[in-house]
Structure formats: C-alpha cells, structure tokens
Design brief:
The protein is an alpha+beta fold. It has five helices and four strands; from the N terminus they run ααααβββαβ. The chain has a four-stranded mixed sheet, covered by helices on one side. The chain is globular. It starts with 5 loop residues before the first helix and ends with a strand.
C-alpha cells in the first residue's frame, strides 16, 4: 500500500459516485461515508494549525496511509503517518464511543505496530 494524499481523498468525496468509486479502486481503498466526513474535519483542523506553511501542510497530508490493513489478522488502521522516527496513529470516529474504548483501540494498535521500533503517537 502506498500513502495517499488526504486532501485528494476529501476532494474525491464530492465527485460523482461512479468517478469516486473508480478513484478509490485505483488507490486501493474502500472508505465509508462517515470516514470521509471525519477526514474532511481532520484535514480542516490540520490546515488551521499555526506555523505550517502551504508546502509543509501539503507534504504532511501526502504521507498518510489510509485504511491500512494487516490481512492475516483482519486488522485495519484508519490513518497512519509513518516517518523515519515515528508513527502517528489516528482512529476516526463518527460518533462518541467514549474515551476508554478509543484508548483500548489505540493500545491494541500500538501492540500491532511495535515491531517497527518507532516512537508512536
């Protein structure tokens, strides 16, 4: 799987269903409508971060692995940013499931990603 630009993914959200499905197939992803809505919110929040110029913002959005799966165990990660030194794992939620449930899922994800020996956030 290759990284995908989250901005492009959010833009694709507003295309016709036929074109959107073709793009998603080309990118090898199957996002749900709720995930696309959450991603749009995330992209807008990231854009509002102080201190990021347009180039830094574009680079940051282009380095995300969306819907990454470990097929042998049927484990999916919503968004992973992987650099040489660290991993940022973001779980997208469309409804409030409670902080405890989110923490449990993030700890589980950390367990699966630990073999990469990178700082995890």
């Amino acid at each position: 799987m290759k990284p995908i630009n989250l901005r492009n993914l959010v833009i694709a959200k507003n295309l016709s269903k036929e074109l959107r499905d073709k793009l998603f197939a080309l990118w090898g992803i199957k996002p749900k409508d709720q995930e696309l809505n959450s991603l749009e919110y995330l992209v807008n929040e990231l854009r509002a971060l102080p201190g990021l110029n347009d180039e830094e913002w574009a680079i940051m959005l282009s380095r995300c692995y969306f819907g990454f799966e470990i097929t042998n165990i049927s484990k999916e990660f919503d968004c992973l940013w992987i650099s040489d030194k660290s991993i940022v794992n973001i779980e997208l939620k469309s409804v409030d499931v409670g902080e405890d449930r989110i923490k449990k899922q993030l700890l589980q994800n950390k367990y699966y990603l630990r073999h990469l020996s990178l700082n995890m956030h």
